[in-house]
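retry 2 of 3: previous attempt timed out while embedding nicotinamide-adenine-dinucleotide. Reduced batch size to 1 and resubmitted. Inputs unchanged:
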Amino acid sequence: MSERKVKLAIIGVGSMGSMHVKDLTSGRVSNAELVAVCDIDKAKADRFAAEAGVPAFYDYKDVLGMEGLDGVVIATPHYDHTPISIAFMQAGKHVMTEKPVAVHVKDARKMAAAYEEAKKQYPDLKFGIMFQQRTYGFWRKIKEMIDGGDLGRLMRATWIITDWYRTQAYYDGGGWRATWSGEGGGVLLNQCPHNLDLFQWLVGMPKRVAGFAHIGKYHNIEVEDEVTGYFEYENGMVGHFLTTTAESPGTNRLEIIGEKGKLTFEDGKLLFDRNAVSMLEDIRVSTKPYDKVEHSLEEVPFTHHGEFGHRFMLENFASAILDGTPLIAEAPEGINSLTLSNAVMMSTFEGKTIDLPFDEDAYEAKLKELAANSTFHKVVREGEAKDMSKSFR
Ligand SMILES: NC(=O)c1ccc[n+]([C@@H]2O[C@H](COP(=O)([O-])OP(=O)(O)OC[C@H]3O[C@@H](n4cnc5c(N)ncnc54)[C@H](O)[C@@H]3O)[C@@H](O)[C@H]2O)c1
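retry 2 succeeded.
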């Protein structure tokens, strides 16, 4: 292992970026150090720069040529992930972007193409994304079980993730939030990228998507705050994704059904109801009209670090730069969760099921139209100071 520390700048030091600053300055990331902060809000940039003893920048373009800089972590509002990532990769700097990779798939593809282009000149360039939940022990255990064949052929995956409760004060607390022009979406784009990423990471991508999203149903916002997504897979598996920011206490329950049993994760417990024989086989061969397949319930042990996980992602990003350790999440993989999110919205807007790959140009055009025709009056109110730790799942 190299003794050298990777030199990183944080672009955007708001709620999330300031946590990355803390992780990098507290010594909790063993192989990386903070060398600059950048924010268009001068006061913020100056404050964090002074606290960390690093230079402040107010325009990311001024960071591009910084001597000795290895890479950046981008924690700006989502639309800016695209131009900022591309600019740094073109300058040969490693990039870790916050989730979602972009607002729409068209932008994400531009980023992936820029990465491929930049790698021709800088073959060791890294482009990661902050999907820190991929480090959580229970999701890793579920992935291990699915990939290892414990469930056999997958038949249904249902995620009820309705514990992303947000009040109006949350939405009023930031000018860019929950607007078509500033954020480009609601619960699917802000709260759910982690869940949608895990969904595709665990069970893959569907071929068809239907969505029923409600715009500002429980909040005074112009984007979606309650969503039902329905996914159909090549092998016949079906998926359901139910989310909202309007349920308290809400539910976080993932059920994955395979021919060999039912895996559920809820309230920190992973349970596997294991079938003695394949239920698909049993459906075919059993002579008993009503009897269920013999099954036994077991609690599945797993180890979990118990943290939010961002610092492990920063450490992994730095290791990838230093010694080629594989990234936990490559940024172009963010296209999958974004596809699910965009397709659910497209299905809602068009009132029909969407085949994947879908018309990504049409979705970008729709977002532009929504932003251009918006008559929504955004109210920004100073709320209580945000405690970001309450926002993570
Ligand atoms: N991984 C996670 O768990 C997680 C959690 C929260 C937020 N996020 C992501 O982090 C990003 C930021 O969210 P937030 O809640 O911190 O928002 P925020 O509004 O609190 O902070 C954004 C900061 O970026 C600055 N900014 C805006 N445009 C900029 C630009 N062009 N250059 C430099 N600075 C700029 C703003 O002044 C602000 O300080 C979003 O993409 C969000 O999805 C990720």
